[in-house]
Amino acid sequence: MAFEEGQDIKSVVLDTLYGGLSGFAGRYVYDTVVGKPLVNALKSTGKYADVVASFIFGAVLNYAGAYVGGKGGEALKVAGYVPIADALGRLFGDAPVMASKTVSKGVNWGSLNPINLEEVKM
Amino acid sequence: MAVNPDLVLATGSQVVEIPISFSETTTQSAGTVIQGQMQGFGVFVSASTQVTVPITEVWHIIDTYNVGGVVGGGADGTFVLLINGYIQNVQWKVSTSNLNLLTRFRLTQSIVLAPASTFSLSLVLSGTPTANVTQVQILKIIRAPYTG
Question: Model pTM?
Fold first, then answer.
């Protein structure tokens, strides 16, 4: 992933963290729940099938595991992003560098009332 | 076009500057309405004539400008801002929102875009372009997490 304008170190750390964790988790779950039983079943059919099965299923499972991990990661990100980002925010400081420079502090931009721009130093 | 909300939720209020492009052609004339193509919501997000504010955010339009005024070969015109399909009672011209003008058009208060609202910017030409050109207008917006 790359830095985008306005993005801070916090979101980069989060993305990396979630990507890594979820990839690992997805791979583990897929390998143990689906992969092992399949390979074992094919192994029992004969000698050559043993080698072929290990090879092909190894490759397929690798891909599938990564795919499932990616999907899981998205869900995990949606569920956990905000609280964890909040915690990280306390560690690293409130807002991204760019925002703290350009968004006026002490103004409730999240409200639905129009802000008097002449009173706000942008 | 919906906009990905997670960045602002995670990091707090931030400023975005949205370039809006208007394609002018020599076949247009005074009164022609051109819908602006809004850009700047990420590398892989295509330009869109209408943007939807995420339900978790409040946006404030705080400024609008262009660099250099009316482009060579283009025509002057009036910008019309539509929020949720309604024309807003604030209009300005290409020529008067030139960044280099000391007395350029300025907003005195922010234009609020509530969660889930849509907005778009149109240009009503006041003359005939003499060439096929693209006029670019910037909207400066603060995206903030909705606090109620």
Answer: 0.61
